[in-house]
Amino acid sequence: MTRKIGVTELVLRDAHQSLMATRMAMEDMVDACADIDAAGFWSVECWGGATFDSCIRFLNEDPWERLRTFRELMPNSRLQMLLRGQNLLGYRHYEDTVVEKFVEKSAENGMDVFRVFDALNDPRNMERAMQAVKATGKHAQGTICYTISPLHTTEGYVKLAGQLLDMGAESIALKDMAALLKPQPAYDIVKGIKDTYGDVQINVHCHSTTGVTLVSLMRAIEAGADVVDTAISSMSLGPGHNPTESLVEMLEGTEYTTGLDMDRLLKIRDHFATVRPKYAEFESATLVDTDIFSSQIPGGMLSNMESQLKAQGAGDRIREVMEEVPVVKKDAGYPPLVTPSSQIVGTQAVFNVLMGRYKVMTGEFADLMLGYYGECMGERNPEVIEIAKGQAKKDPITERPADLLAPEWDHLVEEATKLAGYNGTDEDVLTNAMFPGVAGKFLASRAEGPKNVGKTAEQIEKEKAAADGSSKAVRGPIKYNVTMAGRTHTVQVEPA
Question: Whole-number mean pLDDT of the chain?
């Protein structure tokens, strides 16, 4: 008997976030939506992550309008988002009322599946968001961020899945943002969760950066995974994800099938093949990076550290920083390296190399050491905790960080009302709450409409023509045979 494997298509969110810094404009996605809607995916990931930030920071586009448009264009699909638990889509913890309001408004505007994660895998930071999702009647997916350390074991991940199920998770996502999930651990973790908790739905999300994870998806399926994440081939690989069509072909002749409509997939592929060149300037140069297995540094984190070093005139010290990251990670209790913990650990490693170990500590790293982001799997280094206490002038905490926050909704409404362009909606209040430094400028310019930062077809053609011209130029003089009055002369023509 054939078992159906669900597929979550990532092209509308994580694919372009990973490949081209989340710059894809809505107008470059809409024409593919009918085919995506009809292809047979379990869900379509199209919102959350960095899309909200990128919409208002670079594209002058209302992210709520983007969600409503997707809902309208894909009426038959489950729409899915990535939500950072108590951080929502911002970079700090929000008070519970704000979390509830954000989830409520997201559901109201069309969201169906909320993949809720926490950078430290602290279930306390996911619980309130999942409860809020359940209150709206939508699908709450509890997420395990996969990482490798001496403390992270199959048994530990299985136990974490149980905690998330106890909190009301309807399914479990195993999220491998750094492409560290090798085939055997993928099998062991999925099988462990299935054996322990019965027929719970498991979704597996892998990036393709290290080159091994298509095999990991296969082993996860063999262990009982129900849904896997892929990206259409023209928007796949590198720091992105495994290709959707490759998964379909891989399962042919096995006891598994995706049931996806290949004709639709090819139309989606062709659409994004024409779109991708527009954003070439934002693309990562990484194709395969197996150093991640030893450094455990995701590509986005590495480029962030490189730019910090270059800004300090120390671009040649990246190797030292890469060696410092595992030290900082261990001192902090082995957090998985995903937003925002990857930025916090990476920046501290840069500071340690440039100024001496913990001579200068960022405020965020001090907060991480003192428990204000939550609990990590490992014990934090007591000596570094003392340095953090001295610098931050506050004591460590053991309670859930959001329990220390005062109610803030009324204050956030008050702040939003002061902004030019504020339209009086809860959505605008939430946009400003997520990105207070950016939202004001966006709301003031929103009426101008979205801006596409990709190149036009005409610009691409001109660049190609210029490149062709220059490549001919470097080939040196061209010889021609010219026949005049019956006599042949060889003429050498040099470029001006």
Answer: 93
Please write the tens of the pLDDT for every residue from 322-350.
899 999 999 999 999 887 888 899 999 99
Q: What is the pLDDT of residues 416-426, one digit of tens each?
A: 999 999 999 99
Residue 203 confidence (pLDDT) above 60:
yes
Confidence of residue 369 (pLDDT cuts 50, 70, 90): very high
- What does the domain layout of the chain look like in residue ranges? 3-282, 296-402, 457-493
Mean pLDDT of 197-222: 97
Burial of 295: CB neighbours in 10 Å, binned 0-12, 13-18, 19+: middle
Query: Is residue 407 predicted with pLDDT exceeding 90?
Result: yes
Which residue has 């966006």 as its token pair?
Answer: 442
Give the pLDDT confidence score for residue 195 in this predicted structure.
98
pLDDT at 460: 84
**CA distance linking residue 127 with residue 205, whole number of Å:** 21
* Assigned fold of 3-282: TIM Barrel (3.20.20)
- What separation in angstroms does the CA of 46 have from each of 75, 199, 255, 427? 13, 27, 30, 18
Given a cut of 60, whether residue 46 has pLDDT beyond it is: yes
Q: pTM for this one?
A: 0.91
d(CA 247, CA 39): 14
Q: Specify the pLDDT at position 464.
A: 79
Confidence class for position 432, pLDDT limits 50, 70, 90: very high
Homologous superfamily in CATH for domain 296-402: Conserved carboxylase domain (1.10.472.90)
CA 11-14-18 angle, 5° bins: 110
**Calpha distance 189→180 (Å, rounded):** 14
